[in-house]
Amino acid sequence: MAALAGLRALRRLCGVALFLSQLYVLSGRAGSLMTTKHSQPQSTFAKSLTSTSTNTPYFKAAESTEIPSYVTKCPSNGLCSRLPPDCMTCNTNYSCIYGKPATFDCKVKPHVHCVDQNNHEQENFTINMTCQFCWQLATTDYVCTNSTNCMTVSCPRQRYNATCTVRDHIHCLGNRVFPKMLYCNWTGGYKWSTALALSITLGGFGADRFYLGQWREGLGKLFSFGGLGIWTLIDVLLIGVGYVGPADGSLYI
Question: In the chain, where are the structural domains located?
């Protein structure tokens, strides 16, 4: 009986061991399945990263091929020495003697093509210019904004703040856009010759004052018959020397 009981216990022990071994095998397979499932998204994500990293130089290349805005101001295959200042980069020497000729080494900007006197393309060249700052240029070398709010006929003559820009073919030192105080020099379209002719012929009726936009003075001359001729003679002299001008404060043409 004791041997029979021991045999049964041994069978139970073997069954438990078999069950534990199967459970261990099943758990190992499940773990491998889990690892393979998790490894697939990682590999996909890694592929996406590698594809993104390989595409990055492509976008950089696309950005580098964009044409800068200054290229539209630069004539293609023209003389390098005649390019506008926006098309080149120069090593300016601020220690040059004012008013004397100066030579500067320049280089064309990217995407700009120019040639020399022999029609050979070049990148490095020299330009000759007068040693002076941009705000010291002659008035014909830059363009300034006009003001229609100041009076041109005043004592002393009024000035206004203007913003000036150097012309493209002019080279100078410093900023090419600068502020400057200018005299009021705008015109409303009135002609000095017309005003003087009206003052001589029809000044007794105030035609000259009406033409210049001075309605009160014109009515005064009209109803006083030109101040009995005295006002008419005075206006002829004042308009002739330019002392009397348009009512809007502008200059004669």
Answer: 71-131, 142-183, 192-241
